[in-house]
Amino acid sequence: MRVGVPKEIKNHEYRVGLTPGAVREYVAHGHEVLVETQAGAGITADDAAYEAAGAKILPSAEEVFAAAQMIVKVKEPQPNEWVQLRDDQILFTYLHLAPDPEQAKGLMASGVSAVAYETVTDRAGGLPLLAPMSEVAGRLSIEAAGAALMAYNGGRGVLLGGVPGVAPARVVVLGGGVVGTHAARMAIGLGAEVTIVDRSLPRLRELDELFQGRVRTRYSTMDVIEQEIGAADAVIGAVLIPGASAPKLVTRAMLGGMKRASVLVDVAIDQGGCFETSHATTHADPTYEVDGVIHYCVANMPGAVPLTSSHALNNATLPYGLALADKGIAACDDNPGLMSGLNVRAGKIVNEAVAQSLR
């Protein structure tokens, strides 16, 4: 199969769909890999590195889209990309269609078979292709919160870890999954006071055991969320419903009970965000203020650390991508996990959670 890797064009997105190491694996499986020139610049992989791995370098994204039978990306296709897709192609990338009906319409109109990283499942029902970027985003969320709390960025001027004699910042993490766990680990490491809020008692027990009492755990109700965000210096939104829009756990009315110049970091923004007042931002202009509360809602947080992120992502996606290249879209019929990842086929949304969110 001819596998194409265009350069990412989303604002401040430096990751790449295939690293040179991954290209070498595809070539070893007998596939031809077409890479747009400078696609790997963000991970310090030049065209020569891709050529050494066996790829053919093409001078433009248009040529990659025109020649490839399968397109491997990182972020969802932008409007000038989805119009280049065809009904004889496979698209393998993050899609996050639930909050993006225009992209959904574009993909359906193209006829492409689109497999979304974020809804591929493993045998245990986990999300193996979302997990590595959730790990990165969870860790970055604390760095983002710390920066946003700086006075010169409009924040409260609170140091996450405090110092002897001065209390540390209070960090509340909404959601105890992969993002929330990694956010809590980073916040604890910096010395912050951390609370994790989740609606699963078994998960809260696991987190209590994991962190050996170094975090507070609370069962998620509206009252608890109001109490916790009211006392927080930073709130990390880390909730996920696979394929579906994120629930709005924090309403605008709740912002009135928060500390002035406290910070909300919405890691769920790719799925529409879990704060009512969230809207997607970019690394170029990451924050905005609503009712005295700073919002950080960058939709591609791991793009800030592309070298780490691209390799972590490729480690996870490689076996699934090779299966698609080896067997075509029929690989989904043979693999229930890949079938869960199939979002668009023959002009229709075929993932039920995504379809429900788009209705």
From TrEMBL:
It comes from the Bacteria. Residues 4-137 form the Alanine dehydrogenase/pyridine nucleotide transhydrogenase N-terminal domain. One of its GO terms (molecular function) is nucleotide binding. Belongs to the AlaDH/PNT family. Residues 149-297 form the Alanine dehydrogenase/pyridine nucleotide transhydrogenase NAD(H)-binding domain. One of its GO terms (biological process) is L-alanine catabolic process. It catalyses: L-alanine + NAD(+) + H2O = pyruvate + NH4(+) + NADH + H(+). The active site is at residues 96, 270. Gene3D superfamilies: NAD(P)-binding Rossmann-like Domain (3.40.50.720). PANTHER family: ALANINE DEHYDROGENASE. NAD(+) binds at residues 134, 198, 203, 220, 239-240, 267-270, 298-301. One of its GO terms (cellular component) is plasma membrane. This is Alanine dehydrogenase. Keywords: NAD, Nucleotide-binding, Oxidoreductase. Substrate binds at residues 15, 75. The lineage of its organism: Bacteria, Pseudomonadati, Pseudomonadota, Alphaproteobacteria, Sphingomonadales. InterPro entries: Ala_DH, Ala_DH/PNT_CS2, AlaDH/PNT_N, AlaDH/PNT_NAD(H)-bd, NAD(P)-bd_dom_sf. Its EC number is 1.4.1.1. It is an enzyme of class 1 (oxidoreductase).
